[in-house]
Amino acid sequence: MNMILFMITLSLTLSIALTALNFWLAQMNPDSEKLSPYECGFDPLGSARLPFSIRFFLVAILFLLFDLEIALLLPLPWATQLQSPTSTLAWTFILILLLTAGLIYEWAQGGLEWAE
């Protein structure tokens, strides 16, 4: 218990000290060059604050969703070496079916079509 209290106190003290040091040493003198948008050395041609298409975010979220679910399948080669791998293989089959059903649903809804 004493070691846990020491580690919590040390972490809290170090965090507060580094945050205070950052606020104390930070240089806050913005000028027009730092605040202007940068486009390869040229003057900006349009507004830099135009919103992105929602399709970019949809594709990114779909990628993260399917990528993280595939990561659940990575321990499968070790799970097949267990005494009874049938339940593990059944859960894997169910997970792959759910991923396939999600992909088919997104495809049918038009979420994977880039151009309209």
From TrEMBL:
Signal peptide: 1-19
EC number of the protein: 7.1.1.2
Listed transmembrane segments: 52-76, 88-108
The reaction(s) this protein catalyses: a ubiquinone + NADH + 5 H(+)(in) = a ubiquinol + NAD(+) + 4 H(+)(out)
Localization terms from the record: Mitochondrion membrane
Function of the molecule: Core subunit of the mitochondrial membrane respiratory chain NADH dehydrogenase (Complex I) which catalyzes electron transfer from NADH through the respiratory chain, using ubiquinone as an electron acceptor. Essential for the catalytic activity of complex I.
Record gene name: ND3
Gene Ontology MF terms: NADH dehydrogenase (ubiquinone) activity
Family of the protein in this entry: Belongs to the complex I subunit 3 family.
Organism of derivation: Petroica boodang (Scarlet robin)
Keywords attached to this entry: Electron transport, Membrane, Mitochondrion, NAD, Respiratory chain, Signal, Translocase, Transmembrane, Transmembrane helix, Transport, Ubiquinone
Taxonomic placement: Eukaryota, Metazoa, Chordata, Craniata, Vertebrata
UniProt enzyme class: translocase
Name by which UniProt lists this protein: NADH-ubiquinone oxidoreductase chain 3
Coiled coil stretches, renumbered: none
Pfam families (UniProt xref): Oxidored_q4
Entry annotated with the keyword DNA-binding: no
Gene Ontology cellular component list: mitochondrial membrane; NADH dehydrogenase complex
Membrane topology (UniProt): Multi-pass membrane protein
